Amino acid sequence: MFYELRRYQTRLGRRDEWVRYMEEVVIPFQTTKGMIVTASLIDEEDQDGYLWIRRFDDEARREELYAAVYESDRWRDEIRPVVQQLLIPEKSVITRAVPTALSVLR
Asked: What class does CATH assign to 2-96?
């Protein structure tokens, strides 16, 4: 099992709009496809920073879920265009992390 930590930078002053879109559209859509979203967080020190965390059982499952979400018509035609309006994609940082033996995330 591993986690994917995704840190995004929203366009100036649009974080609240982004959080609403994530919580009303993106996260519900992805969870219907099987994604496990373990956290949705705002950055206390950066007014335009946002972080979310997803959990995957293994690489094969991650690939399967990525295909289900990112190759879907709804993602491509409806959701992705809004995401690109609200985020600065080139500032996204995605980190894969494995919990240590004593982590409560195991």
From this structure: alpha beta
